[in-house]
Amino acid sequence: MQKNIILLAILMVLSAGAYFLYQKSIVNRKMSSIKEEREFTVGSPDLIHKIVLKRVNQEPLVFEKKGKNNWLLNGKYKADEVVVGYMIQVLTNAKMKSIPSRNALEYIHQAIKNRGIVVEVYDANDDVLKKFSIGSDVQNGDATYMVMNGFEQAYAMELPALGGSLRSRFEQPLDKYRDKYIYREPVASIKSVKVEYHNDKNNSYVIEKKVEHMKLLR
Questions:
Q1: Among 8, 101, 169, 203, which residue carries the largest CB count within 10 Å?
Q2: How many angstroms separate the CA atoms of 79 and 180, rounded?
């Protein structure tokens, strides 16, 4: 009888331990899932080698890193490194500002369906680092709704200390993302500049670089 009681006690302890471990694993999985659906950022800008923007009823925009501060847009245009930098700032520094209510989710998801932006971030091996959708801005405009791919919960994201819309950095037309330079030459390599007016020869001029100064020649 006493032996049976001992065995029963051992079974109860083991059962309680197994139940505790099971519940703990459920909590851990849930916490891991919550963490994953909130992590819209990449640990370092150096990890980002390609950014793809997919917008409703528009041509996708593909930014590929070709060297330090050198990005190629859609395989043929040099991208504006400053504007690309604005996107990377979001992809590495955005923080959660708030969690919208369950009642707001229907509106947020409908806005994403109508005019959302899918953002895909790839590493040097062309493996996906992040994939998420950008929705509308919150009502006061100081944060932007985002939803991680594969999840339903939306989050209002911001850049701390900067405020304002994050969406605007990802919804510009192609021309806004292109490099603005017509010529890009090191100043030291320029020896002279000639401006010639075909219909006004008298006002044409040449600027020549001398050792210590610039000289204007008519």
A1: 169
A2: 9
Q: Specify whether the CB–CB gap between 166 and 183 falls below 8 A.
A: no
- pLDDT value of residue 66: 93
Q: Is 94 exposed, middle or buried (0-12, 13-18, 19+ CB in 10 A)?
A: buried
Q: At 23, give phi and psi (nearest 5°).
A: -65, -40
**Burial zone of 76 (CB within 10 Å; 0-12 exposed, 13-18 middle, 19+ buried):** exposed
Query: What are residue 83's DSSP bridge partners?
Result: none
Model confidence at 7, pLDDT cuts 50, 70, 90, reads low
CB 218 within 8 A of CB 205: yes
For residues 130-163, one letter each, b for 16 or more C-beta atoms within 10 angstroms of the residue's C-beta and e for the rest, the string is bbbbbbbbbeeebbbbbbbeeeeebbbbbbeeee
